Amino acid sequence: MSPVGRRLVIAAGLAATLIGAASGLLVATRREQPAAPVLSGLSFQTADGRQLPGESFRGRFVLLNIWATWCPPCVKEMPSLDRLQAMKGSGAFEVVALSIDRQGLEVVEPFFRKTGLTSLAIYLDREARSMPGLRITGLPTTLLIDPNGREIARWPGAREWDEPSAVAEIDEHISKARQTVR
Prior knowledge:
By secondary structure, the protein is an alpha+beta fold. The protein has five helices and eight strands, in the order H-E-E-E-E-H-E-H-E-H-E-E-H. An eight-stranded mixed β-sheet has the order 1-8-7-4-5-6-2-3. The longest helix is centred in the N-terminal third of the chain and has 22 residues, at 3-24. The protein starts with a helix and ends with a helix.
């Protein structure tokens, strides 16, 4: 890619990030009624090249973060997502960081190594098909998805995901969703 093209891609990414953060003011969107499953129809690639259908995450709560290595706020929040996965990751909860980098593993794997991310798995969406499918308008955007695959909260913009207030907010959404399912 030419230097001018690279600058345009970076500028577009920054603009989308700013628009997404400004529109959401970093506040979660709460859903009163669970929406239809959001992961059905989506497919992610794993670091070993396997296609993983979105439905494979059913049965657990998923904090799905859409990000890219060229997005400064995304890069900033990735270590906190890794720490959150180390803290809360289990058979009932997983942090899924889905990269939309066109170069895929070629740029994501070195970023994980350089940043010291060891708890997160690498998931790739090189064609960024998740963006329109999940109605994502800016990066980063994070969705909390219930075990039935329905979105129960959404946060546009970057956060420190392992801070006590963020963990408490996630736990509150999970607790409410569990009460609704019963």
